[in-house]
Write a structure and sequence with these properties.
Elements lengths: L2 H14 L10 H14 L5 H7 L2 H19 L2 H10 L4 H19 L1 H19 L3 H16 L7 H10 L4 H30 L20 H19 L7 H15 L3 H6 L3 H20 L1 H6 L9 H15 L1 H11 L5 H13 L9 H12 L7 H26 L3
Helix pairs in contact: 1-2, 1-14, 2-14, 3-14, 4-7, 4-11, 4-12, 5-7, 6-7, 6-8, 6-10, 7-8, 7-19, 8-10, 8-20, 9-17, 9-18, 10-20, 11-12, 14-17, 16-17, 16-18, 17-18, 18-20
């Protein structure tokens, strides 16, 4: 076994066992340590590590994280949470929460939706007098399912859309992955609402979330979010206006960075640990690719990576070990000229594979880190897997059937 593969497996193991590690150790610490070890052992050179990082993805995430921080700082997240809680009936509140989170994920990426949605989930848990865990589970499921239908719904979709060069990425994803997204959400909701409603009242008052700072200028956050939607959706509908997703995100975040009255504080509140997690993850991925370890493991399947059925199987299994973003990154490096059906299968199944383990999707990591930031103890590794198993089984099956039927397979 190569050092790169051994370190990747060790990263997975340590994250799985993190509940028994000291509380100060975060998931991004583990991933960063893995990248440092690979650099120290010469498994990847500093130049190759820099080249392995997809800066388009990092730029996109930085922009949406900055906008998300501004939304929270202006009290917009609290206002949304209060509006959802004010729905009255618990089941209706959960439905609104799931749908709103899924829509936010499709428009602003699952990672930004996880940042925005975590405090809302904790507010909902407090209002319903329920433990936070089942509502955080519902957040993770909605974030993942909603992100599948959009080219900017998650980092792996951004990678695929950039790689494929679709003339109409929004329309392509909507056609191939929109219907299974809606079906999966409809089937997942009864299970998610059952998780929340069947939990006994917590018996203790959930701690209040820290109130947002008093920000006199709310318009930069609103303008930033509007610009992001216009640049992404408008650029897709009018290819002549298309700009790289990373550039679009930075342009959209410019009003927050330039005109917010407390821009430095907002910059400090960006989810820097998750950005570091992604940078380190790309380094680990680059090392794995350069080592040739995965190519050896795949063996004859390397020649069949363009087949949708093979793509679905590898994307699901590999995402459990290496997380879906690096798996897609590696897959695109190993293939060329893949069909739209294959790329949509890769996007859908790799995304939905994130519902099985915490490490399978970075948005799960974000929810854990955000909950801990607000002083809450989130779900454990195996608790997450047990509660998400029905969604994990159902949603990839629905997606596989739809993509196969649409592709004429």
């Amino acid at each position: 076994m190569s050092i790169s593969l051994a370190v990747s497996c060790l990263i997975f193991l340590l994250i799985a066992l993190r509940q028994w590690l000291p509380d100060k150790i975060r998931i991004w610490h583990i991933m960063s340590a893995g990248a440092v070890v690979l650099l120290a052992f010469g498994e990847i050179t500093p130049q190759a590590a820099l080249a392995a990082i997809d800066w388009n993805v990092i730029a996109y995430l930085f922009g949406v994280f900055l906008i998300a921080a501004a939304l929270y700082d202006n009290g917009i997240s609290h206002a949304i949470g209060e509006r959802i809680v004010g729905a009255g009936r618990p089941r209706l509140a959960i439905l609104i929460f799931v749908l709103a989170t899924a829509l936010t994920s499709a428009v602003l990426t699952n990672d930004a939706a996880a940042v925005i949605g975590t405090p809302i989930a904790l507010m909902l848990a407090r209002a319903l007098d329920r433990p936070a865990v089942p509502i955080l589970i519902a957040l993770c499921a909605a974030v993942t399912l909603g992100s599948m239908a959009s080219p900017v719904g998650n980092p792996q979709n951004i990678l695929i859309a950039s790689h494929a060069g679709f003339t109409d990425p929004v329309g392509t994803f909507a056609l191939w992955l929109g219907p299974p997204t809606l079906i999966a959400l409809a089937l997942a909701y009864p299970w998610l609402v059952r998780l929340v409603m069947n939990c006994r009242p917590s018996g203790t008052i959930q701690p209040e979330l820290p109130l947002p700072h008093s920000e006199p200028r709310a318009w930069p956050a609103w303008v930033g979010m509007g610009l992001l939607v216009v640049l992404v959706v408008g650029g897709s509908l009018h290819p002549g206006l298309h700009v790289p997703f990373g550039v679009a995100s930075l342009v959209a975040a410019a009003p927050v960075a330039l005109f917010s009255s407390r821009r430095l504080r907002t910059l400090r509140e960006v989810d820097w640990p998750t950005l570091i997690f992604f940078v380190a993850m790309f380094v680990v991925t680059g090392s794995l690719h350069d080592s040739g370890a995965l190519q050896q493991l795949l063996g004859p399947l390397v020649e069949r990576l363009g087949e949708p059925a093979v793509t679905a199987a590898i994307a699901f299994v590999a995402s459990q070990l290496f997380s879906n973003v690096p798996v897609v990154d590696l897959y695109l490096r190993l293939t060329s000229g893949a069909s739209t059906e294959t790329l949509m299968m890769l996007a859908g199944i790799s995304t939905l594979a994130g519902n099985l383990f915490i490490i399978s999707a970075a948005s799960n990591v974000i929810v854990v880190q955000q909950a801990e930031r607000y002083g809450q103890r989130p779900f454990t590794f195996w608790q997450f897997t047990a509660l998400m198993l029905p969604v994990t089984v159902m949603s990839p099956l629905v997606t596989w059937l739809w993509v196969t039927a649409l592709g004429g397979g």
